[in-house]
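Please review the protein record below. Tell me whether the encoded fold seems credible here:
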Amino acid sequence: MPLINRWVQFAVIGAAIGIVAITILSRKQTREVATVQPSVKQSVAVGPLMEIDPTESARAGRERDDNALNMKFCWCPPGKYRMGPARSLVDVELTHGYWLGKFEVTQAQWMRVTGLSLREQRAKDPDQPRPVGDGTMRDHVGEGSNHPIYFVSHTEAEEFCQKLTTSEREAGRLEVGWIYRLPTEAEWEFACRAGTTTKTEFADTMTSEQANFDGSKATPPGPNLHETTAAGKYPANAWGLCDMHGNVWEWCRDGYLATPGGGVDPEESPNSAKRSYRGGCWHNPASLCVATSRAWGNVDDRGSGLGFRLARARAR
């Protein structure tokens, strides 16, 4: 056999071995991720389309706090975008603007509506799994009036919305046809992006100096605070919203689907026992705190890294 043909054979065999090795390594890495975080779908966004009418865009980020809780809300305009990670982008159109909480619901606001402190909320679930998210045996991971409430189930978050809607409507502070509710996943991601097409509101990368997550294994390494932080500690996005990345995961209105369907004003599986939450939390790495990060829990699940923020929006 000519020498050149033997070299071609060796090159082909070598390439095949390399492909097999890479495939095995990829499968191993996938298994390791699944073992560490079985219910979280890691997602990376690459350049999704974002269309917002210039007139509407100019209004984005306007604030209001005309409610009994003095809860601040930021205006999110209607628009179109491509939602989700690069491998499963879906087209979404939001035909109505809405107001989204500038901050996650705080422990003081939870107390005002429900009458329960963080410790009393925690005591409702004595079987709450321990250790908490960072492997320690603490009962609480951030306590204070301006810290986000957590250990809240989806059912309890919706009850909070209903109580606030009723009281604000009776006080004449809520427009006809509008309610306080959880945002849909499509509304949440659209607001998190705030007109950007990168993985986070900052760029394709972020540090734990910009948001509250575990930066200890990042490159370069950053802080890992091992707890929640008070509202307003980190910079807001272009529409004035804080802590859309990290701090606590945030319940959404939707039932969970492995791949959302998209469409016009989508809301997935409203009667599902599994509910979506978004944004990552204080004990997650940066990769689980990007704009497309998703996970799910049952309607009665609670956790040390799971809270919510409100939308003031048209009733569905």
